[in-house]
Amino acid sequence: MKRLFASVLALSSLTLLSACGDDDEKTPTPDGGTTATTQDVTANITGDTTWKAGTTYTLKNYVFVEQGTLTIEPGTTILGDQGSALVITREAKLNAVGTAQKPIVFTSSQAAGARAAGDWGGVVLLGKARINVAGGENTVEGFFATSGDVKTKYGGTDDTHDCGKLKYARIEFAGYELAEDNELNGLTTGACGTATDIDYVQVHKGADDGVEMFGGTAGLKHILISQPDDDGLDYDLGWRGKVQFLVVQQNATVGNRGIEASGNKNDNAAQPHSAPEIWNATFIGSGRAAGTTPAQEGLVFNTGAGGILRNVIVASFADKAIDVDGTASAALWNAATPELSVQGTLFWTNKGDTVSIPNAPNPKKDAAGTVTDPDVSKFVEAEKVLAAGLNNKVADPQLTAALNLDAPDFTPAAGSPALNPDNAATPGAGFDTSARFVGAVGPSNWLTGWTAFPKN
């Protein structure tokens, strides 16, 4: 489910030079002290700026960090009004590093109990790494392209570019649709490079995708995407990051895909291919009945997108477990050196199936709607994905409370096949090689203490 704002803020109104508005209020206390400060943020940031713990900052509109580094101290709360977002441009950096005890919280400015997905636009990081579009540069989704405006541009040639740090942070009730296929998400990155550090981040109840990666090479680690309105992790335009310890939990009302992987929809052969390497991930559907709306699918790869997935759980999706959609993505699986591969994965009760996984034919239709090819990709998921040698299985991972929306627990029970190292490969270079288990959570629960699951 996506919501459309009644009006769009003109970007030209965001060219003020100061970082914050004039509203800086402190409430007196009986002993002569003051309570926490509140401060409205109305203007763009053009130099090094620090947002202090103890002050609650409210984004009143699109706020662009044009130059310098925005530092956000542990425990700081940032509220977003409708029509607002925080955008770190290519010439700036974010340094938002919380702690497990004091996470940084980005959330709706509406009162608790009245908050909803799509209340504000979320966090956007833009960089200078490669993307697979003509000219190597693009305008990030969620904004209308404006001639001469570089604040919303991303892309370049520096695959090591540093968009900054975002650690121990929660992003809640964000994301919205500006126009069809032009949306902001909870967390949006465009062309961020390998020096970018995104770790211990939760995106909760976003109106579009939880996290979307537009090209680049930035990695993700210890990521929880809970109850997005659309897809959990969406990536396209040549994203090649490394991911480890990722949880996606959908809900029965609006959740769509655990992963939607795309290449370049205008050119399926565009290089570089979207092909991240993902270790230790858990994708949980809602457990609702198959055939209901919207369709709910685990892993979808289309338009020439790939991905190397290892030690993964895909469970409780109402419809497809995995869909290799179209000839371009199927070719990446069938290549001599595959750029699309799934190994060491446990599938369970997808479309209610406890024996196999459902096939996902991709029919081709003519202009009149007549099916001219019942399966253009010729990719039989049940055969290909469960083939000998891949160590993929249909087995109950025995997760403690993965379907619970109020207090989920993705830890496998004692004796779970997810904890059997024979079912898991040893993670490769650049990953935590001690994670010899299937799924995002092993014997210890890295989600404890800093995550939250508010309904509204």
Walk me through the structure.
- The protein is mainly β.
- Helices cover 3% and strands 34% of the residues.
- It has one domain (16-423): Pectate Lyase C-like.
- The chain has helices at residues 327-334, 381-385; strands spanning 24-25, 37-41, 49-51, 55-59, 62-65, 68-72, 77-80, 85-88, 92-97, 104-108, 123-126, 138-139, 153-154, 164-172, 176-179, 182-184, 187-190, 197-204, 211-214, 220-226, 233-236, 242-249, 257-261, 277-284, 297-302, 307-315, 322-325, 340-343, 346-348, 364-365, 371-373, 393-394, 399-401, 409-412.
- It has a 17-stranded mixed beta sheet that branches.
List the helices and strands and how they pair.
Layout: E1 24-25, E2 37-41, E3 49-51, E4 55-59, E5 62-65, E6 68-72, E7 77-80, E8 85-88, E9 92-97, E10 104-108, E11 123-126, E12 138-139, E13 153-154, E14 164-172, E15 176-179, E16 182-184, E17 187-190, E18 197-204, E19 211-214, E20 220-226, E21 233-236, E22 242-249, E23 257-261, E24 277-284, E25 297-302, E26 307-315, E27 322-325, H1 327-334, E28 340-343, E29 346-348, E30 364-365, E31 371-373, H2 381-385, E32 393-394, E33 399-401, E34 409-412
Parallel strand pairs: 2-4, 3-6, 4-7, 5-8, 6-9, 7-10, 8-11, 9-14, 10-14, 11-17, 14-18, 17-19, 18-20, 19-21, 20-22, 21-23, 22-24, 23-25, 24-26, 25-27, 26-28, 26-29, 29-32
Antiparallel strand pairs: 1-2, 12-13, 15-16, 30-31, 33-34
Signal peptide: 1-21
Keywords: Signal
InterPro entries: Pectin_lyase_fold/virulence
